[in-house]
Fold this protein.
Amino acid sequence: MRRRSAERAGNEPARKAPEGTEEATAGEGAVVGAMAAVPWQAHLAELASTSLAGMSRRLPTLIGAAIRLAWRASRFDTVVTILLNLAAGVFTAYGLLATAGVLTALFAGGATPDRVRAALPSLALVAGAAALRSGLQAGAGWAQARLRPKVNRIVETRLFDLTTRVDLTAFDDTDFHDAMHRARQQGLYEASSVVQEAIDILTGLVGLTAAAGALGVLHPVLLPLLLLTAVPDGWAAARAARMRYLTIFTLSPVRRRKWVLADLMADRDSAAEIRAFTMRGFLGREHDRLATEECEVHVALARRQAVARVIGEIVGGVATGAVYVALGALLATGSVPLAVAGTAVLAIRTGKTSLASLLYAVNQCYESGLYFADYLDFCAEAEVRIPEGRHGPAPATFDVITAEDVWFTYPGADEPSLRGVSVRIHAGQVVALVGENGSGKTTLAKILAGLYRPDEGEVRWDGVRLSEVDLERLRENVAMIPQDYTHWPMTARHNIAMGRTPDDALIAEAARASGADEVIAPLSHGYGTLLDRRFKDGHELSGGQWQRIAVARGFYRDAPLLICDEPTAALDARAEHALFERIRGHADGRTVLLITHRLASVRHADQVYVLDHGRVIEEGPPAELLAAGGVFGELYDLQAQAYQLQTEQAGGPNPPR
Ligand SMILES: Nc1ncnc2c1ncn2[C@@H]1O[C@H](COP(=O)(O)OP(=O)(O)OP(=O)(O)O)[C@@H](O)[C@H]1O
Ligand SMILES: [Mg+2]
């Protein structure tokens, strides 16, 4: 098993398993707390050491990305949110300055009723400004709330657009899985938070500017005092956020493994095996071990976060005290009149609230931004893994498909799975690939189907090199019945049509050919029956019944090349015979690449290739191979002997060789 380099994330509590121990492998006993250092996450070190200042430098990029996202999600809501917030800020400042008018009138000499009367116009202005500000803020809040689901929609769509387009080899790469996990688990949902917080930053800035403007007008010394009160809180919050992010980043492989285990323990597919193998205890212990590890890391995190916050609160409290002492001194020395000092206290409180929400938003935006960056990084990485846009027209038919000296190694594998394989498939033929488990048959079939690109060598459809064509288009001309087919949680009709417009007559025809019609006939809603027991009215099929559906898919697809990878592994004898009869009849004029371990059925192929450890070791018409007495003949005899023994015991005739 390939081991990923373990690297500690900053000072986070990543526990690195000793080299060579069970725990250092990702098999039994996952790497708990060890870091997966993904090359394209080089920003980790930078983040681990980011200070408040560093954070501020990063913010404009994040805010820029967030605003662009919001703009794409809804121009109207973005503009309305920003404009209404700006207008609310103007009325905040206006209200504060009007308050100074109220206080000046109240603190002036004369009889109290006269002073109150004098203050009334300013009071009306304060009340009007407050009402307008509240109305504008409510409107801005509404527009902002409308943005969130719209942003969520576009980021989700983009993510799944990429996960379904990346090269198939990406799914064999553990780093890609880790990155995809982080992007899906958290990054996806933080995108709308970043947008929300970017707007909150703007709102906070506007409020702060309003308060600062009012203070500046009242007395210039008051402005720096305002800043002094809120910086410590902001620092503490930023520190706590960074700790949380790094912990979650560090725990990513553990959480992924726990997630997989949790799925297994709660999934329908694995429920029977868990009971049959009485492995409840094993899975539970493994899950609990990971959960305990995660829990300990989180408890330690909570302690360190609390310490940071307490320090912030203490320093913040001292700073607030100092501000009021300074204000008292200004008042005592007569530098500011009482009315101004009174307004200043209000403005400082307003400003502090705005500054606190600004810092909170900055901090939240930064924290969400870290996860959002994971999402953006994943998207960037996935973009790179999208097969290059080769636009050569994909051939619709062929006279001969050739693979020449094809080499292929799975990402991260030590050994190549194909080593210089060459095959020829003539139109209208049935070509069989045989060989022992792991010899490379499925891999070769996937390369011929355009699912993987060979590392070396070339596959051609007539003269056209597949390396130059748009593989997505080519796949339209290939029907594949894969070895590991999916039980799609859809209706029987869609399970056969597989994304193409369902044509009932053709579906019935394909189902008849594969024997799936017998499976579907008794279902309560026929072709409209949902094949998933997890949903109401859903129906479950047996393994062989599912395989008949999978075979019907291959027949439904009108493609000149039909690849059948172990199409009969789960079929009963009658269904298997019927299917091979059909394949023998060249599946309605199509060319068939047949992979099977049922060698008796291979006798009717036009050409057989025997693979061994990624190489073609024998090739030719089956009769010639049998006559030559090589590996094919040996394997064939082994299977034939089993039948011979049975038929001898039953007194029946021997099967023909
Ligand atoms: N996704 C993968 N990542 C890494 N190695 C793989 C992957 N899939 C297959 N292999 C390896 O490639 C080799 C060939 O596998 P392949 O599935 O092509 O064999 P096969 O001939 O189809 O076997 P079977 O008869 O069991 O279906 C095997 O050694 C296997 O371990
Ligand atoms: Mg296989």
Residues 1-43, 652-656 have pLDDT under 50 and may be disordered.
